[in-house]
C-alpha cells in the first residue's frame, strides 16, 4: 500500500523549487522548503547584529524565496494566502523533519555530484514509505541513487515539472530501474488528480521526452537558418502559429529560456549519445557560443536573438544578423504560403496550407518539420513507449497544438513518408513495417474510440471516465438542442450540459434563447444542468458590439428589451426546480459571471479569471450581477446587527474597480466565491465534477431557491459609497466619468432611494440595474469606452 501524500518537502528554493512548493500549497499540501545555510551575512543582517547562527539567517534562502513568490509574475501561487502553507527551513537544522513528510522532492542545481550527495543525506533520515523524487531536467535517475539502498531506490523516481509549474500542464514521470510500479502508478494518479498535471511516463534517457525532442527541433531549425540563409524573423514567422506552435516560435522561445540554459541542455545529450548523426545535431552551433560569450543570452540580459531599443518614436524591436553580429530593425515577413496558413483555422489545416503553397517559406517549414517527425519516430522505444506520450509531451510541455505524430497524420503518413524517402531519408523500421501493412495513419478514430499505432497493432487510447469531453459527446450525437451560439448536450446519467460556442463565447440573443429552451428541456427530462464549455475562455461577457450599435442608433427600447431578456433568462435559470452547477474556466467576465451566479454551485477551474468588469466599458452589471451582490451582502449580514454596509461597500469597490480574480481560489478574496462553491485544479475533470455535484444535490433531495427579500442600505448607505467615489475623484484616482458610473452603481447596490434596512424584491433590484444601465448607454464617454474595447481589446480611461 502506498502511503497517501498529505505533507511534502521541497529541497532547493530556486526558480523551480519555490514554484513547485507554491503549486503544492495551492493543492492544499503543506510543505517544508529547505535550502543551504548561507556562508556569509548580508549587509542588512550584519547591521541588525545577527550572526550566522541566527535562524533568520540560516533559513534566509527559503524565507526570501517564499517572499519572492508573492511578487513573481505570472503568479506561482493561486492565492497569496497559500504561502502560509510553506514552512521555510535549511538543510542543516531541519533534515530530521523529513521523517514527517510523505513526499520529498529534490530541486537543487542540475549537477549529478550535488544531487547524489544530497540524496545520500536524505536517505539517512528517510522514513520507509516516503516517496522521494527528483525534478532533474535530464540527469539519469538511476545514476543519482546508484549508491543508495534498495528500499530507498524502490521509492525513488523522477517527477519533472515544466516551468512555470502552475501553468505548464506537463509532468514527466521517470521510473528508475527498481522503482516500485505501485509508486509509479500512485504518483501518476496523484499528479493528475491532485496537481492537475498531464502526466507522461518517460524512460531514463538524457533530457527525457519533451526537452529531448524540443531541443532537437530548435537545433535543426537554427542549422537550417544558418545553412540556407534565413533571417531570425523569417524563421519565427514560419515556426510559430503557422506550424501550430506558440507565437514565441523559435527565437523568442530561446530568448525566454536563456541561451546559457539551452546550451547546457543540448550539451547533456551531446555528452551522453554515441550516435554520430544525433551527436552532431546536439553540438550547439558556434554562433550560440559566441552569443553566450558576449552575454547575449536572452531576456534575462535584455538581448539575445532579439533586442528592444528605445528610439524617439518609442520602442523598436531589432533582430540579430548572424553574418555581421549586428542588430537590425525587425522586417515584416510575408509570402503566399504564410498567407495561406493564416487564412485557415486549426493547426492541421495551417500546416497543410503552408506546405501546400510552394515557396521559400514552405521549404523552410518542411525542412524543420521533417527532421523532428523522423527523430520522434526513431526515438520511440528509447525515450518513451508510446507515440501518444511523445505527442502529449510536446503539446503540454512546449505548447504545440499537435504532437509530431499528429502532425505527420495531418500531412498524410504515406505522402510524407514518400517525400522523405525520395529525399534520401531513412524511415525507422517500425514506420516502414506499419506502412507496408497497409496503414495510412498513426491514429484512427472508430466511433467514439481512438486508437494509436503501438507495437505493430492498433491500441486503444484510454481516456479516464472522469475526462468528459463535450467535443466527443457531440460526435456521438448527444446534442439535444443547438443554435449557432450554444448547445445543450446530454452528458449521461440524466444530466445535461449547456455549452456556449459563439465567437469568444460572448453572450448574445441566441445564447439567451438557448438557456430558456434548456431550462424547459431540463425541467421535463433531466435531473439537473451543468453550464460549462471547452472554449479558450468560458465567456468574455455580453456582446458589446450589439449594444454599441443600438446605443449609437439611440434604440433605447431595443436595449431595454435586450437587458430585460438577459435578466429574465437569469431569473428563469435561478428558479429552475432542478440543480444547476456552473463550471467556468479561464476568462469569465461580465455577463459570463452573471451566467454563473444563478447556479446552485460554481466549480471554478483553478485557472479562472472571474470578475464583473462592466465599468471598463462604462457600464454596470445589469444581468443580475448587482442584484446578486446586494443579495449576498444581505444574506451575510443576516437579519439583525451585522454590518450590512461593510459588505455592500466591499462589493461596491470590487465592481467599481472591475476587479478580476487571479485564479479560481482568488474568487474568495474578492467576494465571488459562495459557501457551496469549490475549485478544481484538473481542467479535464471539470465537467465530470460538475455533473457529480448535480447528481449529489438531486440525490439528497433538491430544494429550489425561493424568491428572497433583500435588505438594503438605502439612501444613507448610498451616500457613504458616493462619498467614497467623491474622495477618489478629489484625489485624482478616478475620472469624472468613473465617478458618474460609481454613483449609479452606488444607487443600485444601495437599493435606490429607500430608507436604510428596507426589504426589497429581486425584481425591484433588477429594475434599478436596468435603468442605470440604460442611462449609461446614452453617455458619449461610455460609448467611447465600448468602441475602444472592441477596437483595442482593453479598457479606455476617460
Ligand atoms: P536554481 O539555480 O534557481 O536553484 C537551485 C537551488 O539549489 C538553489 O536554491 C540553491 O541554493 C540550491 N543549491 C545549490 N547548491 C546546492 C547544494 N550543494 N546542496 C543543496 N542545494 C543546493 O535552479 P532551478 O532552475 O530551480 O533548477 C533546479 C532543478 O530543476 C534542476 O535540476 C533543473 O534542471 C530543474 N529544472 C529547471 C527548470 C527551469 O526552467 N529552471 C525546469 C525544469 C526542471
From TrEMBL:
Pathway(s) the chain acts in: Lipid metabolism; fatty acid beta-oxidation
Gene3D superfamilies noted in UniProt: 1.10.1040.50, 2-enoyl-CoA Hydratase, Chain A, domain 1, NAD(P)-binding Rossmann-like Domain
Residues in 3-hydroxyacyl-CoA dehydrogenase NAD binding domain copies: 8-205
UniProt KW Oxidoreductase keyword: yes
Domain of life: Bacteria
Domain 3-hydroxyacyl-CoA dehydrogenase C-terminal residue range list: 208-307
Keywords: Fatty acid metabolism, Lipid degradation, Lipid metabolism, NAD, Oxidoreductase
Record carries keyword Ribosomal protein: no
Catalytic reaction list: a (3S)-3-hydroxyacyl-CoA + NAD(+) = a 3-oxoacyl-CoA + NADH + H(+)
Family, as annotated: Belongs to the 3-hydroxyacyl-CoA dehydrogenase family.
The protein's name: 3-hydroxyacyl-CoA dehydrogenase NAD-binding domain-containing protein
Organism name: Paenibacillus melissococcoides
